[in-house]
Design brief:
Layout: H1 2-19, E1 25-33, H2 37-42, H3 46-56, E2 63-73, E3 78-87, E4 91-96, H4 97-103, E5 106-115, H5 118-128, E6 132-133, H6 135-140, H7 146-151, E7 158-159, H8 161-171, H9 188-192, E8 199-204
Parallel strand pairs: 6-7
Antiparallel strand pairs: 1-2, 1-5, 2-3, 3-4, 5-8
Length: 205
């Protein structure tokens, strides 16, 4: 009973947070997962992200994505947010934000940028949806070693979360300074440190 009550409260918090968002702006979400067995199972690259954070001194951001659209549910009188993201299991795809937040164990920070070009955002999603996820490129994106760069060649038919997000932001007109703006070299922490706008905590499990 107590567990069900906690789940209901979590759901209410997420719904309220989504309904308070400006639906005409770009919302980037940064995920920081707790270091536990549940997250290790669902995010195989988690340990690598934590170690890289210790080496670089940058905030440990395990995943990044953006809200791709808002759908209004007339029966429930609320908005449902969809996110466009990259995961190891499904590649580049559109996911339900509520479902994702209900399943994670961690903290999510939101960065709200300027007005979104919805026409370009829709075209971007159609172009990138279905592209496969590359664990190898994702794993070594934050390591600047010539030997690795020589043997791990990026391909346009595969990518990872920060590659997808950097490509989206560039398509929306934002310039990324880190790694000369090369999406294949950027980590979620690199995008976080660009500081396009003020950040705030959006959700914590």
């Amino acid at each position: 009973m107590k567990k069900n009550h906690k789940a209901i409260n979590k759901r209410k918090r997420i719904i309220e947070a989504v309904n308070n968002l400006d639906r005409n702006k770009i919302h980037v979400l940064y995920f920081q997962y707790y270091l536990n067995w549940h997250n290790f199972y669902h995010s195989p690259l988690l340990l690598g992200a934590k170690i890289l954070s210790l080496i670089t001194g940058k905030p440990c951001i395990d995943h990044v994505c953006h809200i791709s659209r808002f759908d209004y549910d007339r029966s429930k009188r609320r908005y449902n947010a969809k996110i466009f993201e990259a995961t190891a299991s499904k590649g580049m795809f559109e996911n339900d934000l509520l479902s994702k937040l209900e399943s994670i164990q961690g903290k999510v920070t939101i960065e709200t940028l300027g007005r979104v070009n919805k026409k370009k955002a829709k075209s971007f999603k159609e172009k990138y949806r279905g592209i496969a996820y590359s664990k190898n490129i994702a794993m070594f994106s934050g390591i600047d070693l010539k030997l690795i760069d020589k043997n791990i060649k990026p391909k346009n038919d595969s990518g990872f979360c920060s590659w997808l997000e950097a490509s989206f932001l560039k398509d929306q007109g934002y310039k990324i300074k880190a790694e000369k703006g090369n999406p294949f070299e950027l980590t979620p922490s690199d995008i976080y440190c660009e500081d396009f706008a003020e950040k705030r905590e959006f959700f914590r499990s």
